[in-house]
Amino acid sequence: MHDPLQLAIAVLAALFIGVSKAGFGGGLGMLTTPLCVLAFGAKDAIGILLPLLCAGDLFSMRHYWGNWEKRNLKYLLPGVVVGVVIGVQLIGRFSARELNIAIGALAVLFVLFQWVKEIVFRAEGAFAPNHAVGIPCGIGAGLTSTFAHGAGPVVAMFLIPQRLPKTRYVGTTVLVFAWINWIKLPFYWLDRGWVDWSWLPAESIITRHTLELSAWFMPFVPVGVWLGIWLNRRISEDWFTRIIYVLTLLAGLELLLDLDVTAILH
């Protein structure tokens, strides 16, 4: 990467993996994918991000170790596997522009969901998780996570009605996202040249090129973890959240409208 602005956006995306997961619970991580798409393009971005997300999951799980509701995995993971398989097939069918639209739409919908979720769930009683709801939510989470790393709203719709204490809710999201990302990893790595599975993309999503870029930006993930914890102690979470929602909305609109943000800022 030779463009300083693209490099800055990529560094910000890597930092924000750690900031969102360890400092503010991972729920704000939807900004990471649009930023990475702006820096690298849609196809490379999702491959570059997954190793970074897996690293961020490890740091976050250490931070929230044991402070989660593990039972949610048995309700969500069967559907997640199905959703990942479907999502891998969709990636091979999307053009770069179509992926941009999908990721941009998810970013915008994520922000809208965050603004209305309290109103939607306020009148509901506590929800007991079950397979009837968990499997469809798992499919949606696996699907959106696979082609856009955007499972946040779907997982939130399953967890929020359970009325978990805040820290336990955050820890549960960390656990669920870690499992989703590690399930995706082998599907991102395989291609038809290695195994005779026609439903896989023609080329693997994680390549030597994307791994090299992931390695370059990997050190920024633990820095982001430290920064997130530091920010959490010094600024209002409400204000930080509002700023990130605005940035996520703007990044999503940029991808939807196909604006050349680097040219505008230059």
Q: How do you describe this structure in short?
A:
The protein contains twelve helices and no strands. With 266 residues, it is mainly alpha-helical.
Please describe what this structure looks like.
There is one protein chain. With 266 residues, this protein is mostly helical. The chain has one domain. The chain has twelve helices and no strands. The longest helix has 27 residues. The chain is globular. The two termini are 16 Å apart. The C terminus is likely disordered.
How is the main sheet built?
none
What's the helix-strand series? HHHHHHHHHHHH
Overall pLDDT score: 79
Kindly give the count of domains.
1
Q: What portion of the residues fall into strands of 2 or more residues? A: under 5%
Helix content: over 70%
Low-confidence stretches: 192-196, 261-266
Tell me the structural class.
mainly alpha
- Shape annotation: globular
Rg, Å, rounded:
18 Å
How many DSSP H or I helices? 12
Number of strands: 0
Q: What is the CA-CA span between the terminal residues?
A: 16 Å
